[in-house]
């Protein structure tokens, strides 16, 4: 079994499979964007104390296995 994360009063293991799909499933992710997306996703995860455990970039969508602390919601609505 994997190692659990812990705080002073609890132990947790929150892993989520997240899929990003561009509008109309345009095949834009293999061009110039591909070089930069991995770095961008990792920086965004670090901001929320999260960790990308595994990721696959397809031509028209992205799969990620991400570990998120329980104090953060996976989705918290649009950030306008």
TrEMBL record:
InterPro entries: Transposase_17 (IPR002686), Transposase_17_sf (IPR036515). Pfam families: Y1_Tnp. Residues 11-79 form the Transposase IS200-like domain. Coiled coil: none annotated. This is Transposase.
